[in-house]
Design brief:
Blueprint: H1 11-22, H2 24-31, H3 36-48, H4 54-90, H5 92-105, H6 119-126, H7 131-139, H8 143-152, H9 155-166, E1 170-171, H10 173-183, E2 196-197, H11 201-208, H12 213-226, H13 228-238, H14 249-258, H15 261-268, H16 273-281, H17 285-296, H18 303-322
Antiparallel strand pairs: 1-2
Helix pairs in contact: 1-3, 1-4, 4-5, 6-8, 7-9, 8-11, 9-11, 9-12, 11-13, 12-13, 15-17, 15-18
């Protein structure tokens, strides 16, 4: 691609060149869609790349354009359609390379044909399947879809399916293909040959955060009897400190009355602006000024100490919610208490 005399660029180097070519205005827009670690690595790469040769510029922009068009073809008509279009335009070898890289980078997942299916229809489609089969399918669905299905399952099956999602690790392509054959006659064209990660504790937490409180409590109570260690792991992730923004003002004020000021200042030492503004909004001006001053003079702190303080506040929120003193907005099934 770059000639025999030039070493092949890494993906990170290509990304840096692309950002340089795009200029600061467009690059800054792209940075908004990246996490802090990605931004840090890319910024370092840009800083180290002092000069972009015309050959590098042409090659990187051309590759980016081809990948963008391939992604567009993939979303329009699926893998086979994208493959055919690219082969006509670029040749079989180049098309195969682009498709391979694109499906890997996009983490194209099995059961893609189900993502646009109405959850109610999907429920009728899978509700009589084995709990492991239902769990496998739900692990690959969007959390909102999966939450709707989990809520609609018979109560005695909800905890069983939730447990199977939580303990799921990796599923072989052969098993995925077999399940897909049951759901649809032809194989999903997006299944890769590599083992595919799905499920796990974080997956079921995303689902449980979207179901109504009654369903969530029923599942957690059943899981506690069957697997208390797994249940505790799930509960730790059920509500994170940043989710404070989901509390109404009255609820947050109740939480703040129960929280130690030292824990609050530590917790705010490393959090996003939205959370901080939400908290300061629900404090008196004097209390807010004192808290800001305490944080300012605190100096460097360990991330571990910040996380422990945030967890203490989360525990207070859980305690107040369990007592019915506050309501956390979750799934569509929740109703406001007036």
């Amino acid at each position: 691609m770059y000639g025999n005399s030039e070493p092949e660029l890494t993906n990170q180097q290509k990304a840096a060149i692309l950002f340089i070519v795009l200029g600061p205005e467009y690059s800054s827009m792209l940075f908004k869609h990246m996490n802090d670690e990605e931004i840090e690595k890319l910024t370092l790469e840009i800083a180290n790349h002092k000069q972009v040769t015309p050959e590098e510029k042409k090659a990187v922009v051309s590759e980016f354009y081809q990948m963008a068009m391939a992604k567009n073809y993939l979303s329009q008509g699926g893998l086979e359609y994208a493959q055919n279009i690219l082969e006509k335009a670029l040749g079989a070898e180049r098309a195969s390379t682009i498709i391979s890289r694109l499906t890997t980078s996009l983490q194209v997942r099995p059961f893609d044909f189900l993502h646009k299916t109405d959850p109610a229809q999907l429920l009728n489609f899978i509700q009589n399947e084995h709990p492991q089969t239902i769990a496998l399918i739900m692990a690959y669905l969007d959390p909102d879809q999966a939450a709707t299905i989990l809520t609609s399952l018979p109560q005695e099956r909800q905890a069983e399916v939730a447990k199977r999602i939580a303990v799921m690790d990796r599923t072989s392509p052969e098993v995925l293909r077999e399940v897909e054959r049951v759901l649809e006659r032809k194989l999903s064209a997006l299944v890769t040959q590599d083992f595919t990660d799905a499920g796990g504790v974080k997956a079921i937490v995303e689902v449980l955060n979207r179901v109504d409180r009654t369903t969530e409590k029923s599942i957690i109570e059943n899981l506690e009897v069957d697997n208390p260690e797994l249940t505790e792991e799930i509960k730790k992730l059920m509500f994170v400190f940043e989710d404070i923004v989901m509390l109404d003002d009255r609820g947050l004020q109740m939480v703040l009355r129960e929280v130690d000021n030292k824990d609050l200042s530590l917790a705010l030492k490393a959090t996003n602006q939205e959370v901080a503004e939400k908290i300061y909004k629900n404090m008196s001006k004097r209390a807010g000024d004192m808290l800001r001053e305490e944080i300012e003079y605190m100096g460097p702190v360990k991330i571990r100490d910040v996380e422990e303080a945030q967890q203490k506040i989360v525990n207070v929120i859980r305690k107040l919610e369990d007592k019915g003193d506050i309501v956390i907005s979750r799934g569509k099934g929740d109703e406001m208490i007036v």
